[in-house]
Amino acid sequence: MASIGVSFDRGGMPVTVVAVAIPARNEQRAIASVVLLCREQADRVIVVDDGSTDRTAELASLAGAEVISHASSKGKGGAIATALRWARENRPDILVFVDGDMQHDPANIHALVQPLIDGEVDITIGSRWHHQEGLRQMPPYRIFGNWVLSRATSMSLSRSIRDSQSGFRAFHIRTLDAFMQVMESGFAVESEMITLADLKGYRWKEVGITAEYDQVDASTHPGWVHGLSVLGKAMRVMRIYRPIRFFGMASILLLVLAGGVAVYSRISYPEWPLLPPGVLYIVLSLYFLAGFLLFSGIMLAGVNRISDRVFRMVADMMEEARNDRSR
Q1: pTM surpassing 0.90?
Q2: For the chain, what is the domain count?
Q3: Is the distance from CB of 199 to CB of 209 less than 8 angstroms?
Q4: How, if at all, do strands 169-172 and 44-50 pair?
Q5: 91 and 126 in a common domain
Q6: What does the pLDDT look like over 19-56, one tens digit per residue?
Q7: Looking at the structure, do residues 76 and 134 belong to the same domain, yes or no?
Q8: In sequence order, what are the beta bridge partners of 170?
Q9: Cα–Cα distance, 31 to 284 (Å, whole number)
Q10: Which long-range contacts (CB under 8 A, 24 or more apart) does 145-148 make?
Q11: Which of 9, 54, 122, 148 could bond 202 through an S-S bridge, CB–CB 3.0 to 4.6 Å?
């Protein structure tokens, strides 16, 4: 029985069913503990074993989780996509994502789920920046890296986000079709999902959580390598879903650069009535490239609107087919 205060109707049937999905790869040290703690907070717990070479799947099953295994690793994005497909088929009211390395405290699931049960928002994101203890626990290099990545992700959103890379999130079932387009196989899936939700107009908020860094550290790459990878993919997400903003910023930078070159050359070569031919060619090329990028952004935004309609039609067809099967 879930202990998050799930409400019941007069017939004693649960109104809200909460499922927890745990993407995991080689997490045998912590996965059983994570599953057991999550089972105290939710109705169903699934573990997506992403091609682990250790006993992750076995221990998760023994702890009481439903296990879905990938024959080979598909990355965190692939594991999340598998969990989303499971949720679309099984239709829990709320789906919560928890990392499998014990960094997240499952006791915080209640804080993430309650705003969804109350109808306040559609999505909640566990934020270490919104919890005094959670922020204090973050190492300085993580604070800086998280700040940079969150600022980059915020460029793709209608408002700022403080903890864009948190994998501790809760989604109402009605939001899941928005993520049919999820494509990232790495950790940038966190940025892409919130961007897609924001574009669809779903309400989201950040909820303060704590995090554990000392007990288990499952990082397989240096922090700066991971950070640069996520930053590059966050920029890619903005280019895909906010093309006018992305290419508009690039155009502005080129225009500023062209203006700087022109002013510097004018000061350095006062004998020329305009600019030296070589410099003039460079400035005009930069202006032309800036205009081309802005035009590309406008065109891609139009393509995005068309593709969004196509995906919406597909989602509606899938929903109709699902309803027909349930009749």
Answers
A1: no
A2: 2
A3: no
A4: unpaired
A5: yes
A6: 999 999 999 999 999 999 999 999 999 999 999 999 99
A7: yes
A8: 96, 124
A9: 59
A10: 145/223, 145/224, 145/227, 148/227, 148/231
A11: 122
